[in-house]
Predict the structure.
Amino acid sequence: MEGIFVSLQSCVVDLSEYRPQVKIPFFEKLPSAVFVRGVSGGTLQQVITRLNVLHMLSMLGVKIYNDVRAIERTVDKAMTSFLLRSHGVNTPATWVCESKAQAQAIRLTAANNNQLLVIKPLFGSQGLGVSKLSVGEILPVPMQQFVDGVYYLQQLIESPMIDGKVAPHDYRIFVINGKVVAAMKRVGNSWINNVAAGGRCEVVDADGVLAELALAAASALNIDYCGVDIIQATSGEYSVLEVNSMPAWRGLQSVAEINIAQLLADDFLSKI
């Protein structure tokens, strides 16, 4: 079986004939399955069109991996947080609103509860656009280039010390078909621990509370495979920060013994 890389924006929805068609470059007929490795950003109309291409392919009998509904749930941080809470999965206190006045009120309440906040783009990855809100700092007005008109505010979780030193860190747990296959600790150079932001990878055991929390998160999102980001607070409590439906695994593979790409390919092919 041969795999061919195609960009979603190269596909054409053709509704000129009696039966609807989605035309994909290099394919005379539709493939049996599609492995989605990314949905590139763009305008709202562009992103919706790319997701709709996946929806339409699914309706035409093409297996989508991950399922497009799972991709939609995880690309939107607010929906991810909502589903985690709805299924009893521990996650940091989170608020989402459009009004600056409401955001200021949320921030005041958080300050009264001794909670520091971070502000994140609703759609984003690799730690890009994430900012810590210092006490007394002026709250930014949402702008197109910043948070696209929405305040996604989340409690900042301070990591416990390592060897007596302040060392911000979190965990990436990789789940495939309801099983934890690999896990790593990401130790950051700053309070952001993403590998893309310079985080250092260290292998950890993929079991215990980390595995239980990751599996609960994957179940809450009803997803084929995912990378679950988990952080431990100074109190010892673990919380799920994000669930990634199109995770990179280069950093994890650098410390993991198993072949992650092969496990994904095997699971993908088993579902065709």
User: Anything to note?
Assistant: The longest strand covers residues 179-187.
